[in-house]
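USER:
Working in pairs, take the chain set out below, taking as long as you need, and write a paragraph about the fold.
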Amino acid sequence: MKAGKILLAALATCAALATNRITVAHDSPEHEVEELTERIMFEGESADLLLQRAIEYNVLGKTNEAVKDLERALHFEPRSAIIQRELSRTYFVAGKTNEALDTASRALRYAEEGPEHASILMVRSDILRARKDFQKALDDADKAIHEHPDPCEWYLARSQLQQQLGLKKERIQGLEAGVKETGSGLLEGELLDALIDGGKAEKALAKIEAELKDARLQSTWLLRRAKVRLAMKMKEEAKSDLEAALKELNDRLGKGAPPLALVDRGQVYELLGNKEEAKKDYESARDKGIQDEWLRERIKVVKGEDKKDDKKKSGEKKEEPKAEDKKEDATDNKTDGGDPK
């Protein structure tokens, strides 16, 4: 599923935690904040303690407090790539994309090549993607995977960018490399979607049919087969798959299924032409913690905001003269003695 940003944030947090402290498994973020605040009061501020508390604030969704701690931490260690990476990510969550981009770019200058440098490249890639600078975002993702090819979520993020740019062949090849490198079942599912999008529906169908025979939960595979059948102009068969997937998802969501099931059901509704229900599920998934660029894009599509953005861009390129301007032009023509043409 398209959860690159969430997993990347988790990776960054885990790396910082592993570097800077040993945690007690049962301690809650609230308890950690209290404990760290007491330590800061008695021991004084340090980059390490402020970074740790900022991470806990981010877990709690207290972005403003996290920004303050991270900015303060930089006073102690202005060349710390880890602090700047976390600050960049936090700025991004807060909607401060300019600050996030500048901070990520600065962090790259201080990071050693390898996992640390690569993780910052992926943070910057997410920021660039949100700014619709898809090619630069893809360049960063390519570099990150070249430096550190282990995290499967990076291949997912790159796949989404390649899809956005219409690079169908490259998307398939990149995912095949990712599956070979990581063995991730998540990437195998994405690869099937890439094959469908890349005009290789029949190749995808064979793998989907095999999975459907053994899968206990079939809704995700039914959704994929429906996409294949739609690509093959088999509309009635696709509708049948979508309705079967919807029934299973309704049953699962009634029993407390994870938010990703909401995303699947949103896709089912969207393919069935029920955009209002699709919007509800996508927004519910977002509210339950799936903060992902792909999901934001789907919400805009089902709300029709993508078309408004296109019109806005077209209007910015070529604005229609205002009524006042037309009137002034006509007056000028009369004054000059010219005949408007």
